[in-house]
Design goal:
With 287 residues, the chain is α/β, with parallel strands linked by helices. It has helices spanning 5-17, 20-27, 31-45, 61-82, 99-116, 168-171, 193-200, 216-224, 238-243, 271-285; strands at residues 50-53, 56-59, 91-98, 120-127, 140-145, 152-159, 162-165, 187-188, 212-213, 230-233, 258-264. The chain is built from 10 helices and 11 strands. It comes from Herbaspirillum aquaticum.
Length: 287
């Protein structure tokens, strides 16, 4: 069945506003033209799509069934057409990123990526290291860990050493690592971090009774607000160190994992994916 595109558009806009008059204003045509387009569509379909009320419109059951399909179709057309802005096709790239990495390392470099690869429409989805590449429709995910994720191809970017960090006033009273035993030690969902740090420092780990956070960003903010001492990836919080919001009282650091660029092995590589991977590897190698 041939259905005129203008009639479908008139229906979609009218259904959104539930008014032929407001639809006409959006489409820059007359109210009569919109009404006639909708009537023509109803005649072709053999059903009524609206109930005409004294003040406005109401969708019939048939109109309610048709609206989401038409709206989605016009939305997809708009998305594709948007890729051809500036006379060239743009390619969407969706990347899931651990929030700490996104804020502390990636965002200061994004402008350079945009300048080098203007055809890529980069979309970032932040997370706390729990990600579903297939379920979320991700081209890539940047994760922290050991690189072993089932069905996933992983490329190591760089290690992220952890060290105690806290507000400057707290740091001022810490002379040796043993002094941490008198402080509140903030914890992440990785429960063995403090134990391993104290082992590397040659000390027994004191009882851990501090708050637990699922995000290093929240952990760092709590530390900056003097809630306690946090074990954090120093590289991700260099800005806070420069600003004096956080201090790193000890040089002892441990490496429990790295950041990795991951993708499903079954995911074909697009031009946008290749451009992002190559750029990211160069940036990581310079870190």
């Amino acid at each position: 069945m041939y259905l005129p595109l203008n009639a479908l558009r008139a229906f979609e806009v009218s259904a959104r506003h539930l008014s032929f008059t407001r639809a006409a204003e959006e489409l820059s045509v007359t109210q009569t033209a919109v009404s006639m387009q909708v009537k023509n569509l109803e005649q072709r379909l053999g059903v009524a799509l609206f109930r005409r009320l004294p003040r406005g419109l109401a969708l019939t059951d048939e109109g309610l069934a048709l609206l989401p399909v038409v709206a989605q179709s016009f939305g997809r057309i708009a998305d594709v057409l948007a890729q051809f802005e500036d006379g060239r096709r743009r390619e969407v790239l969706t990347v899931g990123v651990v929030g700490t990495f996104a804020v502390g390392w990636l965002m200061p470099r994004l402008r350079e990526f945009q300048q080098q690869h203007p055809f890529v429409d980069l979309r970032l989805l932040t997370n706390n290291n729990r990600v579903d590449l297939a379920g979320e429709g991700l081209d890539y995910a940047i994760r922290f860990g050991d690189g072993a994720w089932h069905g996933t191809e992983a490329e190591r970017l760089f290690d992220t050493p952890l060290a105690p960090m806290c507000a400057p006033d707290i740091a001022a009273r810490l002379r040796t690592p043993a002094d941490l035993g008198a402080e509140t030690l903030l914890r992440s969902y990785r429960s063995d971090e403090w134990r391993r740090w104290f082992a590397a420092a040659g000390l027994p780990c004191p009882p851990l009774r501090g708050f637990v956070f699922d995000s290093s960003l929240a952990l760092a903010e709590a530390a900056a607000q003097e809630a306690g001492v946090a074990l954090l990836p120093v590289m991700m919080f260099e800005r806070e160190l420069r600003q004096g919001r956080l201090a790193c009282p000890f040089n002892q650091r441990i490496v429990l994992g790295a950041y990795w660029l991951t993708r499903l092995k079954s995911r074909p590589q697009t031009a946008a994916m290749a451009a992002f991977r190559a750029w990211l590897k160069v940036q990581a190698d310079c870190t």
